[in-house]
Design goal:
- The protein is mainly α and 204 residues long.
- It is built from seven helices and no strands.
- It has helices at residues 2-20, 28-48, 56-84, 88-118, 126-141, 149-166, 175-198.
- α2 (28-48) runs antiparallel to α3 (56-84) and α2 packs antiparallel against α7.
Length: 204
């Protein structure tokens, strides 16, 4: 019984350390790549989606492909980091980071399915809703990350609100609603990750 209690206490201590230590699994180059991809796709969207009113499926396929690629790149980086690490704490932190961010991604996906399938007339709201979900995910993850990421989360929430306020009518599903929001947000996040965690003189 004493051994079981000691093991539980050790597990609790490791869980506490995983929640309080900075998570270093997100890399600036990966985050920046997803931001640049958003800007490139925003530039190319008018060539692929000539009319968002009649080509919603193309619009969704375009941006969901970018999102999927970004998620796959980040997931692969996290998986390789956890696998190569000899530290159980690092692996536990990776699991916590995924658990904190995954709900916002899942809910964003469900919202997309519901709107595309049952209410395509309000699809103009998707860029704003996606930005809000992403911002909430960053807020949820902020306890594991440098405190400056709060600015990134705030950026996404503000952009999401602006998209909902102004992204109607002629501006509905404009490429730069996505390009400006996710391109700018990811580049801002990459800069913060580099400055706070990856510089040679950053705090350990």
């Amino acid at each position: 019984m004493q051994l079981d209690e000691a093991l539980r206490q050790i597990a609790d201590i490791r869980q506490h350390l995983a929640r309080t230590d900075l998570f270093r699994g997100y890399r600036s180059i990966t985050v920046a790549s997803s931001g640049l991809a958003a800007i490139v796709v925003a530039t190319l969207q008018p060539l692929w989606v000539t009319s968002v009113e009649t080509q919603l499926t193309r619009y969704l396929a375009l941006w969901l492909s970018v999102a999927t690629l970004s998620v796959v790149l980040v997931a692969a980086k996290l998986y390789l980091r956890a696998r190569r690490s000899d530290s159980g704490l690092a692996r536990q932190q990776t699991v916590l980071a995924v658990e904190q961010f995954l709900p916002s991604i899942a809910i964003g996906g469900l919202l997309t399915i519901c709107i595309a399938g049952a209410a395509p007339h309000v699809a103009w709201m998707l860029p704003g809703l996606w930005a809000l979900m992403f911002g909430l995910g960053i807020f949820a993850s902020s306890r594991l990350l440098p405190r400056q990421v709060i600015w990134v989360a705030t950026y996404y929430v503000l952009c999401g609100c602006l998209c909902l306020l102004w992204g109607q009518g002629e501006r509905a599903l404009s490429p730069w609603l996505m390009g400006g929001t996710f391109g700018g947000g990811q580049l801002l996040g990459a800069g913060i990750l580099y400055w706070t965690l990856e510089r040679t003189n950053a705090a350990p």
